[in-house]
User: Which sequence fits this backbone?
């Protein structure tokens, strides 16, 4: 009753705000940034905030992969994104080996490989009825093995200067990767929110039977969604290679859990068909800011993983309680 009383001329209320998961995620991000400023005054410096945004960009691109898979339903989660990122970096670095002339061929090869791996995931999950969690976990192991065989345990090559400029360069004060992420956000939002393709993905995730009766081939949709998930993860690997300059066999391993956490924090329902990439973007900023705060507090990787898992559990508990009302 009290919440309903706090309402302005446009009908705003605290209760309506609580129901808006995207808005809540952005508010949490702002509050965390302010908390970081309290813990460490240097946290609010423009340079540090831009660094947070830069790191958010790499995670945010990978989060798009996870968001698409989750939105398509079928208990979809892609645990292979980290391995695909790692494989894409070792392939791209070896193919281009610092040559700008080889950047496009390397990118095309990496994107094709990522798409192919994603399609294998999709075939297993959609047509063979293997639980996505199991399928993508198994493929993650396979992809890691492929990377080891391809490199013989010693990644070679380096990123081209153009890729390095895109991944780690700046235009004025703004990191170039932020501009790349903005383009990715714009394309993703238009496709998922404004096109028939996006409606098909949401419809598939919301209700299989209804989607099938509407003429949507749900198995084919999930098959292709996994394919594009793999391709986007490979693109994220290219961006990371531009940032690091050289490849590492485990470069993408730390991105798996954060992609799930970011999507959940941003209001993407794990049951499918509900949520948005804009919400996942907010979740990405929340996680990156939280990670930066924990680094300021000198917390190790183990502590951060504990926090990621705890955040997912808390957010899922809150959302499930709302849905039962």
Assistant:
């Amino acid at each position: 009753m009290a919440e309903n009383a706090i309402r302005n001329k446009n009908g705003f209320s605290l209760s309506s705000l609580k129901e808006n998961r995207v808005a809540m995620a952005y508010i949490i991000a702002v509050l965390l940034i302010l908390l970081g400023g309290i813990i460490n005054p240097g946290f609010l410096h423009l340079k540090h905030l831009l660094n947070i945004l830069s790191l958010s960009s790499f995670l945010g691109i990978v989060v798009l992969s996870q968001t698409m898979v989750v939105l398509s339903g079928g208990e979809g989660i892609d645990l292979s994104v980290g391995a695909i990122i790692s494989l894409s970096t070792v392939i791209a670095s070896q193919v281009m080996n610092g040559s700008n002339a080889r950047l496009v061929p390397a990118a095309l090869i990496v994107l094709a490989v990522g798409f192919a791996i994603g399609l294998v995931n999709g075939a297993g999950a959609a047509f063979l009825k293997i639980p996505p969690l199991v399928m993508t976990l198994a493929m993650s192991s396979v992809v890691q093995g492929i990377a080891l065989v391809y490199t013989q345990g010693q990644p070679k090559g380096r990123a081209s200067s153009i890729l390095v400029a895109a991944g780690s360069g700046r235009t004025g004060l703004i990191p170039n990767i932020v501009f790349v992420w903005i383009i990715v956000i714009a394309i993703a939002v238009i496709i998922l929110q404004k096109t028939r393709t996006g409606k098909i993905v949401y419809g598939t995730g919301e209700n299989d039977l209804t989607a099938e009766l509407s003429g949507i081939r749900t198995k084919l949709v999930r098959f292709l969604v996994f394919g594009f998930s793999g391709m986007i993860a490979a693109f994220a690997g290219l961006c990371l290679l531009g940032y690091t300059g050289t490849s590492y066999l485990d470069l993408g391993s730390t991105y798996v859990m954060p992609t799930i956490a970011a999507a959940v924090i941003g209001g993407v329902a794990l049951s499918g068909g509900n949520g948005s990439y804009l919400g996942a973007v907010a979740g990405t900023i929340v996680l990156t800011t939280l990670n930066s705060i924990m680094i300021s507090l000198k917390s190790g990787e183990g502590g951060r993983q504990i926090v990621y898992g705890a955040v997912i559990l808390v957010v899922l508990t809150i959302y499930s309680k709302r849905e039962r009302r």
Notes: The beta strands are 170-171, 174-175.
